[in-house]
Amino acid sequence: MKTFLIMLIYFLPFNVEAQKVRLITLDDLYRRIQRGNDTTYIINFWATWCAPCLEELPHFEKLSASFNKSPLKVILVSLDARSKMNKTVVPYVQKKMLSNEVFLLADNDPQIYINRVDLNWSGALPATLMVHKNTRRFYEQEFSYEELLIQYNKIKKYETPISAIGDRYMRFYTSTDQYHYTRH
Amino acid sequence: MIVICGSTQAQINTITPGTKAPTFSLPGVDGKEISFTSFPDARGYIIVFTCNTCPVSKAYEQRIISLHKKYAPMGYPVIAINPNDPNVVAGDSFEAMKDRAKSKQYPFPYLFDQGQSVTNIYGARVTPHVFLIQKKNNQPMVVYTGAIDNDPDNGEKLTPYLENALHELAEGNMPSMASTKAIGCSVKRKKSDL
To answer: What is the SS3 assignment for B58?
Structure first.
């Protein structure tokens, strides 16, 4: 018990240490996803200037907390300018005590990175990319927790029948699924 | 069922360069109805879907004013249209628009798009979202869509997409980059519209 208390005192300051925000390139992000095997990745693109993004951030926190025993990785990628990193992004992340990993996108040409995330993305925030094995789904929308849960449950069950399946086909699936959801 | 679902518009499609610009008549903050014919001497128009509330729009506000001051005398006035539904964002009501235009001394018309019909015909998806129109044989043609430039922060590595397109038009050429994508706030629509 004594040892435990000592350990607790020792580790406590470490655990409450403020969350760091690092830079990441899309290349690094995609490499990491490729190594992910069974993990479902939910990548939320946000910015401190985007009010609806800040409203939905708690839903992503809740999702990863609720599924902390599942192979789920939520990554928050800020599109704030690099100059805002220390002034705005880090203070926000620390104030809200975000537990998901937070990065700031290092790529600086929107004409390239927007299309590399998804060809259908207009560039509007918030935007979310879900990846499970070979399945990719992209959402240019704000999520409620319920919607997020539904889409997560869908993609984690989805097994791509043919590994060589085209991107276009997957996008078709995305839009029909969204339609089904909004209809029912 | 799948075919029906697939053909259903799940999202708004942005009008493509090379097509005729849809005409419209919308009320401006000064009480006047504005359409293309309000500018008989114009060689074209810089339509900017922008709003009161989006921080990116605010960051671009001064640049939009400068664009109008520079290009309206050259035949390309700015026409600003607020694409947001004020029932979703109260700060984008017609009254709030009037206040903003007055306090920031907008030199261009700022139009209210009730029911978002013009917004949807053009397929504006972000704020700010630019549509550059050139009159050809008296027909308004869309020649460029997308971002004003590549940097909402007005940093040093600026590529002025819209101004580049305007310069190319002035030289008698079509914009070499006819469409770009823009980081910005989503256009605020009623949930049932999507």
So the answer is: helix
A43 touches chain B (CB under 8 A): no
Which amino acid belongs to residue A143?
F
pLDDT of residue B7: 30
Mutate to test the interface with B, among A104, A111, A184 (most CBs of B within 10 A): A111
Tell me the nearest-neighbour CA distance from A18 into chain B, angstroms: 27
Distance CA A85, CA B166 (A): 34
Lowest mean pLDDT across A55-69, B18-32, B142-156: B142-156
- 3-state class of B166 per DSSP? helix
Q: Count of A–B CB contacts within 8 Å?
A: 75
What distance in Å separates residue A128's CA from the closest CA in chain B?
A: 13
- pLDDT category at B156 given cuts 50, 70, 90 is low
- A20 token code pair: 């760091």
Question: What is the Cα–Cα distance from B167 to B117, expressed in whole angstroms?
Answer: 31
pLDDT tens, position by position, B77-118: 999 999 999 999 999 999 999 999 999 999 999 999 999 999
| Strand, helix or coil for residue A130 | strand
Give the orientation angle of helix A51-66 with respect to helix A145-157, to 10 degrees: 50
For chain B, the C-alpha Rg in angstroms (whole number) is: 16
Which residue carries 């006035």 as its tokens?
Answer: B77
Q: Name residues whose C-beta falls within 8 Å of residue B169's C-beta, 6 or more positions apart in sequence.
A: B44, B132, B134, B143, B175
Comparing CB atoms, the residue among B5, B153, B186 nearest residue A125 is B186
Residue type for A79, please?
L
The DSSP symbol for A131 reads E
* Phi, psi angles (nearest 5°) of residue A89: -70, -55
How many residues does this entry show for chain A? 184
Residue of A nearest to B53 (CA): A51
pLDDT digits (tens, 9 = 90+) for A6-43: 554 444 444 455 678 999 999 999 999 999 888 999 99
C-alpha span between A171 and B163 (Å, rounded):
34
